[in-house]
Amino acid sequence: MDLLTSWLAGIAAWLVLNTIGSVVIVEYAPAEQLQNFASSVAWNGTAGFIAYLLTAVVAALVHRRPERQRLGRNALAALGAPVVGTLGNAAVLLFTPGAQWGVFWSWSVIALAGAVVGWLLTRWMRA
User: Which sequence ranges are marked TM in the entry (predicted)?
Assistant: First the structure.
């Protein structure tokens, strides 16, 4: 039950934060920059890093004792939503004509690194 609660909180945070990140990119990123690989990865990677970091923090904070003391279980609780979100995005991209897989996986690695940083930050704060 402790994992389910963390995952639900993480998925809710992931949905909200990724929506905010998408809105920021659509509103503020110049279209010509999103056509460039490096700029597109920078915009999406920055938004993803922040969203995934905060998602992992939310999920880790919801994870309760005594289970959060176990490293593997705590990692599963905090990182479950970001990983599932990335896989969900990949599934959607499968059905998108002309999908740019290089951009997707590049920013996804950056975003997942944010999730790991968020989880480790939360563990450090609770130590």
Answer: 7-29, 41-62, 74-95, 101-121
